[in-house]
Design brief:
- The complex is a heterodimer of chains A (about 250) and B (about 475).
- By secondary structure, chain A is α/β, with parallel strands linked by helices.
- Chain A has a single domain (about 5-230), classed as Rossmann fold (3-Layer(aba) Sandwich), CATH 3.40.50.
- Chain A has helices at about 45-55, 75-85, 100-110, 120-130, 150-160, 180-195, 205-210, and strands spanning about 5-15, 20-30, 35-40, 60-65, 70, 85-90, 165-170, 200-205, 215-220, 220-230.
- Chain A has a 6-stranded mixed beta sheet, sandwiched between helices.
- Among the domains of chain B are: about 1-50 and about 345-480, no CATH class; about 130-270, no CATH class.
- Helix content of chain B is about 55%, strand content about 15%.
- Chain B contains 17 helices and 10 strands.
- In chain B, strands 1, 2, 3, 4, 5, 6, 7, 8, 9 and 10 form a 10-stranded mixed beta sheet that branches.
- In chain B, a hairpin with a 2-residue loop joins strand 6 (about 225-230) and strand 7.
- In chain B, helix 2 runs antiparallel to helix 13, helix 2 packs antiparallel against helix 16 (about 445-470) and helix 13 (about 335-385) crosses helix 15 (about 400-435).
- The radius of gyration of chain B is 35 Å and the shape is elongated.
- Classes of the chains: A alpha/beta (about 250), B alpha+beta (about 475).
- The interface of A and B includes residues 76 and 91 of A.
Chain lengths: ~250, ~475
């Protein structure tokens, strides 16, 4: 059974009198353990796709089966629970809470899980997730005491803490320099290889997309191409011509 | 909840200046509530105590019943002088209708008296003396009595005292409850102890004035000894607050009533004074005493009282500017008259106090409202500034309710902290008004708790709108915001 199954998903935004067709019938299956890169220029519909995949938004039409369950028409709170339990988010801007330690940041999703775990258990799980991304020794650092790469690894730990079946990474390297980008991509690759977590990566950069096992190109709300990819080895010394969108 | 509280504290710390300003607004509101409630309660307690102090709670019972310097049927002074039985006076007053508006109780009592007056034509002479039987009756068989004290007075010769320039002393016997009833103040030495009262010990109290007359030029009258009726009586204390305006020639001394009986050679009391538990019951107690004394003295229906029951303010009335004729008429036993007017006066005083408190409370409510608006303002700003954080929390699984609670707790924390600071400020404010401005204040713990609860409630009420606004945000839009 695929982790993700999209059936003829459409998404229409109404902007005043105008109607914007962000997605125009996307069908797609993603199996467990895949590392899928979704690429496309801005306006292609990849962000809308990521919002629907992440249960942040509901499709206008079509069905979205997550782990076999149709989530396309669930209530807000039911979607919140699914995001909490089954999906880990990694954002371009890291989105860590300021003046809050790395450990507490990682703990946040556990605060919204019901039934709520005891404090000691939450702490232990947050610590384990931080150690998984190699930041066990930075647990009590605040975000402003960490480098961009470290912040993004804290965000990955936060995505992992509730043991989701799916990690959605939205331009995770957009704010990072080349070397750090490679570190982060390697962390994601390792998660897939060692723990079999399914990863969906949204990017507009071809060389970042190349870290995936499958690359889906999106344009004008439709899938342009969908092909398997030999994942690019993320080697330490490799100097790839990654354009820097922004340097943190 | 603990997590929410910690999150709230952290969020407030991140917005420190705004939070402090809001706290200030909130605390001023709460401080106002505290000060106002303290002042209002203080004013009311003061009014109550003034009513209590000025109102008639003292009833004096004297043996014998004679109308003071003749009052005739028109209420004018009777040139012939003469003594008149109470019944006649009362019946005439009822006919004259002079006191028609004195209140229902008094009117009812009047009616009773009028009915009785027709038959009350005789009076007992000599009257039954006041003694142990009356004391026992007053102590045990009359309700709403707080204290009873018997007293007697008489002049005694000082011929055995060669060193004292005056020849006669006025010996006043009193009982332990008397000093408190009449408001004596101890100026030097000590009061007479309960044991000394019980044994009629040879000890006495003097006033500064009487001490000056008895031992002129002496620094202190304490431990001076005076021979009265063959007993060596020692001065143990000097008292003030005694009405000794009529004792310019014969200096008064105050001794246990037992001693007074011995040196004056009499067994009975001149007066018995009763203090009632409150102003409101005084006229009822007076009427009750009158009836029970009649029963005790076995007075038939056609016989007038052989005693007089008067309450405190009757004797106070002339000095209050009342018409002396009217005072004399009232003096002749209309126990209800001053009672009714006191109750009316007390009522309007209380109403004035309430109005004052309400007015201040209105001002306090307004400042609390302003504080609440401050809370609402900072929360709205906070929600706007933290839209992205809200989006993130939603992405991580926060339900609408979780977001709502987070912001509500934050607003409540802000308001409650402001409330605590306000309690402290209010307490200081009360101290200032009490010791600086000498206003009466009284802080009640219930009001303090109420002020805190009101502050927290303000936080909730004014926090709901911003919290709702946060809770209904669309996660996609919230995440995209800068």
């Amino acid at each position: 059974m695929p982790v993700i199954s999209l059936e003829a998903i459409t998404k229409v935004y109404k902007l005043g009198d105008n109607q914007v067709d962000a997605l125009r019938g996307v069908s797609l299956d993603i199996d467990a353990g895949e590392f899928v890169s979704i690429v496309g220029p801005s306006g292609s519909g990849k962000s809308t796709m990521m919002h629907i995949l992440g249960c942040l938004d509901r499709p206008t039409d079509g069905h979205y089966l997550l782990n076999g369950k149709d989530v396309s028409a669930l209530s807000r709170d039911a979607l919140a629970e699914i995001r909490n339990r089954q999906i880990g988010f990694v954002f371009q801007g890291f989105n860590l809470l300021p003046r809050t330690t790395a450990l507490e940041n990682v703990e946040v999703p556990l605060l919204y899980s019901r039934p709520i775990l005891p404090a000691a258990e939450r702490r232990a799980r947050a610590m384990a997730a931080l150690e998984m991304v190699g930041l066990g020794n930075r647990a009590d650092h605040h975000p402003n005491q960490l480098s961009g790469g470290q912040q993004q690894r804290v965000a990955i730990a936060r995505a992992l803490v509730n043991q989701p079946s799916l990690i959605l990474a939205d331009e995770p390297t957009g704010n990072l320099d080349t070397k750090t980008s490679i570190d982060v991509m390697r962390t994601l690759q390792e998660l897939r290889e060692k723990q079999g977590i399914t990863i969906v990566l949204i990017t507009h950069e071809a060389d970042i997309a190349a870290y995936g096992t499958r690359i889906i190109a999106v344009r004008d709300g439709l899938i342009l191409s969908d092909k398997a990819n030999a994942p690019r080895p993320a080697l330490e010394d490799e100097v790839a011509p990654v354009p820097m969108a922004a340097v943190n | 909840m603990g997590i929410n509280l910690r999150m709230a504290m952290r969020a407030l710390m991140q917005n420190r200046l705004q939070a402090i300003l809001t706290l200030l607004g909130m605390s001023v509101g709460v401080a106002m509530v505290v000060i106002v409630s303290g002042l209002g309660r203080g004013a009311q307690l003061k009014i109550e105590s003034q009513i209590e102090a000025a109102g008639p709670t003292r009833i004096t019972i004297r043996s014998g019943n004679f109308v003071p310097a003749g009052v005739n049927s028109s209420g004018r002074q009777d040139s012939s002088g003469g003594e008149q039985a109470e019944g006649q006076v009362v019946s005439v007053m009822g006919d004259g209708g002079q006191l028609a508006d004195i209140g229902k109780d008094a009117a009812a009592m009047d009616a009773r008296r009028r009915a009785a007056a027709v038959r009350q034509t005789e009076y007992r002479n000599p009257p039954t003396p006041l003694g142990a039987a009356e004391m026992d009756m007053l102590r045990h068989r009359v309700a709403d009595v707080k204290a009873v004290a018997a007293g007697m007075a008489g002049n005694a010769s000082l011929d055995d005292n060669a060193d004292i320039p005056v020849r006669v002393v006025r010996v006043n016997g009193f009982q332990p409850a008397w000093p408190e009833m009449s408001g004596w103040k101890l100026l030097a030495g000590r009061m007479i102890s309960a044991d000394e009262h019980a044994g009629g010990a040879p000890v006495m109290l003097v006033t500064r004035k009487s001490a000056g007359q008895l031992w002129p030029g002496q620094a202190s009258p304490l431990d001076k000894v005076m021979a009265i009726g063959g007993r060596q009586v020692r001065v143990v204390g000097v008292i003030g607050g005694v009405d000794d305006s009529d004792s310019s020639v014969v200096p008064p001394v105050y001794v246990p009533v037992g001693l007074a009986q011995r040196v004056l050679g009499r067994k009975n009391y001149d007066t018995i004074t009763v203090r009632t538990v409150s102003v409101g019951v005084t006229s009822q107690v007076a009427a009750d005493i009158q009836q029970k004394l009649r029963d005790l003295h076995r007075l038939p229906d056609n016989m007038a009282d052989d005693f007089r029951v008067t309450s405190q303010s009757v004797s106070a009335m002339p000095s209050m500017g009342a018409d002396p004729h009217l005072v004399r008429a009232v003096h002749s036993n209309v126990t209800g008259f001053e009672q009714a007017s006191w109750q009316q006066m007390a009522k309007s005083l209380r109403a004035a106090g309430r109005t004052f408190t309400l007015l201040l409370a209105g001002a306090a409510a307004v400042s609390l409202l302003v504080g609440g608006i401050g809370v609402m303002n900072i929360m709205l700003v906070s929600v706007t500034a933290r839209t992205r954080e809200i989006g993130l929390r939603m992405a991580l699984g926060a339900r609408a309710g979780d977001v709502m609670i987070q912001f509500l707790v934050e607003a409540m924390t802000l308001a409650a902290l402001g409330g605590l600071i306000g309690l402290f400020l209010g307490w200081i404010g009360l101290l200032v008004t009490e010791y600086g401005l000498h206003w009466a204040t009284a802080a009640s713990p219930i009001m303090l708790v109420a002020a805190l609860v009101m502050a927290a409630a303000t936080g909730i009420v004014f926090g709901i709108a911003p919290a709702r606004r946060a809770a209904v945000l669309d996660p996609v839009i919230a995440l995209r915001s800068e």
